[in-house]
């Protein structure tokens, strides 16, 4: 049975009072993937949906939760999918798209039926999902890593040497407001999105994967002068409010997928926070 969860938005004042359990309950998404299920979490921050589909030995359909009050999931939404498992097949209104590891697919508003399946049940696909409200129908398009806009940032000396793969962004394909990409940390580097920033015009969600067995990632959130942290494991996601920083440090290098939505499509729209001013 598929799982759908809705989570309310919180203000900085509320988050300031939260203990570890409350932070995890409101922002951490622990079970993104479960065999033969689609798990979805709706955040009231910009009505963003984070989830995952893990078809093993059967095809699974993208559900249409009652809470959306829609005739079908993509009636007023767009969706981005990035495969972090074995080869997967996504079918959108009868058109099939094969997604290898780290390949992405954008599906625009108006597509009525979406399903997921694995090419090999012994190596099931893990199809990570982000979705945002959409005002226009843009074409469905597959994006490979070779198609991405790639930026290399950081240095080994500051432990933040990383490669940013901009996959579903407006420099690669048109979307309404959804943007997704993937950041790969180089060996020996552990910090992501450092120096940190906020952007009150957009919320974000991070999905951490390729975290080696026995290692973890500490995700930092909150206002720059009132930060909090959440310890995360492999294949887990976290919701980042518009007013919050979103950064992390792992006990090893790792990869994460960032997704965001809001008022604009300007990737560089950031309010930077000096490292020495974080508290």
TrEMBL record:
SUPFAM superfamilies: RmlC-like cupins. Its cofactor is Zn(2+). InterPro entries: KduI, KduI/IolB_isomerase, KduI_N, RmlC-like_jellyroll, RmlC_Cupin_sf. Keywords: Isomerase, Metal-binding, Zinc. Binds 1 zinc ion per subunit. It catalyses: 5-dehydro-4-deoxy-D-glucuronate = 3-deoxy-D-glycero-2,5-hexodiulosonate. Its EC number is 5.3.1.17. Zn(2+) binds at residues 197, 199, 204, 246. It is an enzyme of class 5 (isomerase). Pathway: Glycan metabolism; pectin degradation; 2-dehydro-3-deoxy-D-gluconate from pectin: step 4/5. Pfam families: KduI. One of its GO terms (molecular function) is 4-deoxy-L-threo-5-hexosulose-uronate ketol-isomerase activity. The keyword tRNA processing does not apply. Belongs to the KduI family. Catalyzes the isomerization of 5-dehydro-4-deoxy-D-glucuronate to 3-deoxy-D-glycero-2,5-hexodiulosonate. This is 4-deoxy-L-threo-5-hexosulose-uronate ketol-isomerase. The gene is kduI.
